[in-house]
């Protein structure tokens, strides 16, 4: 019965105060405006304003429609502005999930810098402890995944961020503390502390222990890097962590580190949907994250794009 044209017409009449001014604001002739108002009143079956009143006075029905217009029209204008920004690549949504659970240290500063440049982009961040992020990325539930385990898929684009070395953290009193390079067999009697994710997502298993057919004596899970380091420092086990995540604890002499075999150097990626990889704000976020990493993280190296 009502459409946006009717709402705009009644608002123009209220704000203009007269039929002449309302017609001017709507770029209509006074006759066309009068016809439009008469058609609207016939549709709803009641009069909307007193035609001979000065100043112009609306009926109860007219005030009801104006109340609707004051609610709907601003929302429509806001939606139109947002659509224009989306078309221009200036706003949108960037919901992220992290498979690299040591990444908060550098990711949060990158997010803060990104917010300064893209205040109209909605940002959200979660870990992937309790869900598989790749199906969520394909469904569109999230928009970017930080991962070190790329799974080839035509709908997913992987942007390399950097390479880093995985090191084994041990307590300073541990017998391995004086060993610079360890073998898989040296972990057979150890408790391995790791993040609560599948072993297939952990480099210490997939790139070090599993190829040698070695299983540690026990495992223990924790979500927090700091808790992991504290457990290691107190002799509760050993843990495999990125060199840049271990760096402050090594400097503080809380733990020491050993190289895993000849060295394990994973690559960290930002995974996005292929149809979103050229989005202006997504490209800018990845660029800012990469700049932040190479500037702030010790021991990481840049890699070429896939």
UniProtKB/TrEMBL annotation:
<dbReference type="Pfam" id="PF03466">
    <property type="entry name" value="LysR_substrate"/>
</dbReference>
<dbReference type="InterPro" id="IPR036388">
    <property type="entry name" value="WH-like_DNA-bd_sf"/>
</dbReference>
<keyword id="KW-0486">Methionine biosynthesis</keyword>
<dbReference type="GO" id="GO:0000976">
    <property type="term" value="F:transcription cis-regulatory region binding"/>
</dbReference>
<keyword id="KW-0805">Transcription regulation</keyword>
<feature type="domain" description="HTH lysR-type">
    <location>
        <begin position="2"/>
        <end position="59"/>
    </location>
</feature>
<keyword id="KW-0678">Repressor</keyword>
<keyword id="KW-0238">DNA-binding</keyword>
<dbReference type="InterPro" id="IPR005119">
    <property type="entry name" value="LysR_subst-bd"/>
</dbReference>
<keyword id="KW-0804">Transcription</keyword>
<keyword id="KW-0010">Activator</keyword>
<comment type="similarity">
    <text>Belongs to the LysR transcriptional regulatory family.</text>
</comment>
<keyword id="KW-0963">Cytoplasm</keyword>
<keyword id="KW-0028">Amino-acid biosynthesis</keyword>
<dbReference type="Pfam" id="PF00126">
    <property type="entry name" value="HTH_1"/>
</dbReference>
<dbReference type="InterPro" id="IPR037406">
    <property type="entry name" value="MetR_PBP2"/>
</dbReference>
<protein>
    <recommendedName>
        <fullName>HTH-type transcriptional regulator MetR</fullName>
    </recommendedName>
</protein>
<dbReference type="GO" id="GO:0003700">
    <property type="term" value="F:DNA-binding transcription factor activity"/>
</dbReference>
<dbReference type="GO" id="GO:0005737">
    <property type="term" value="C:cytoplasm"/>
</dbReference>
<dbReference type="InterPro" id="IPR000847">
    <property type="entry name" value="LysR_HTH_N"/>
</dbReference>
<dbReference type="InterPro" id="IPR036390">
    <property type="entry name" value="WH_DNA-bd_sf"/>
</dbReference>
<dbReference type="GO" id="GO:0009086">
    <property type="term" value="P:methionine biosynthetic process"/>
</dbReference>
């Amino acid at each position: 019965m009502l459409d946006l044209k009717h709402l705009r017409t009644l608002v123009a009449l209220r704000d203009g105060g007269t039929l002449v001014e309302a017609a001017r604001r709507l770029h209509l002739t006074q006759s066309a405006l009068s016809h439009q108002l008469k058609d609207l009143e016939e549709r709803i079956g009641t009069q909307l304003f007193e035609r001979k009143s000065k100043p112009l006075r609306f009926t109860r029905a007219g005030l009801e429609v104006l109340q609707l217009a004051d609610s709907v029209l601003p929302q429509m204008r806001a939606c139109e502005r947002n659509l224009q920004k989306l078309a221009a690549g200036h706003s949108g949504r960037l919901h992220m999930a992290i498979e690299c659970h040591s990444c908060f240290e550098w990711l949060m500063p990158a997010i803060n810098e990104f917010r300064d440049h893209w205040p109209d982009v909605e940002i959200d961040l979660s870990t992937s402890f309790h869900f598989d992020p790749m199906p969520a990325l394909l469904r569109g539930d999230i928009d970017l995944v930080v991962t070190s385990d790329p799974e080839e898929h035509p709908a997913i684009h992987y942007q390399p961020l950097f390479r880093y070395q995985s090191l084994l953290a041990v307590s300073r009193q541990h017998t391995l503390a004086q060993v610079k390079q360890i073998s898989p067999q040296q972990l057979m009697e150890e408790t391995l502390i790791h993040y609560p994710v599948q072993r297939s997502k952990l480099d210490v298993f997939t790139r070090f222990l599993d190829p040698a057919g070695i299983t540690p004596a026990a495992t223990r899970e924790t979500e927090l890097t700091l808790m992991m380091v504290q457990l290691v420092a107190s002799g509760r086990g050993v843990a495999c962590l990125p060199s840049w995540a271990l760096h402050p604890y090594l400097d503080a002499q809380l733990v020491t580190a050993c190289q895993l075999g000849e060295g394990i150097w994973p690559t960290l990626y930002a995974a996005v949907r292929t149809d979103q990889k050229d989005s202006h704000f997504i490209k800018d976020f990845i660029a800012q994250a990469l700049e932040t990493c190479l500037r702030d993280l010790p021991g990481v190296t840049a890699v070429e794009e896939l």
